[in-house]
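Morning run. Coffee first, then this:
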Amino acid sequence: MKKRFLKLLFLSGTLLSLLTACEYDYIVPTPTPPVIVGDTISFSDDIQPIFEANSPNCVACHPASSQPDLGVNKSYNSLMSGHYVIANDPANSPLYTKINTNGSMAGYAKAPQVELIRRWIVAGAKND
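And here it is:
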């Protein structure tokens, strides 16, 4: 009888510890903002000014001697030929991933600028 009581006590304790030890972490995915149909973003009018406006501006740290060269009339070719931008794929575009919230260059561009770059990449990263 004593053995049976000890077994029951042991099993109850084990079951209780297993039930209380379980923990669930729910991961809520971050929704990707939709692409606005008819959204026209110009590289020269909308994206290039981002490189020139931020302080210290991106052009100062990425001149012709540094890659990617973000100087006027050179930045698009430098970004595309150096595979810093993968058209239609911001998640795999180093330009976007580095300036995004967790990237190594986060903080050098404001959130609306980062979103503008993301939309430009999603729209095909055209040079217009």
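Residues 2-21 form the longest helix (20 residues). Good start to the day.
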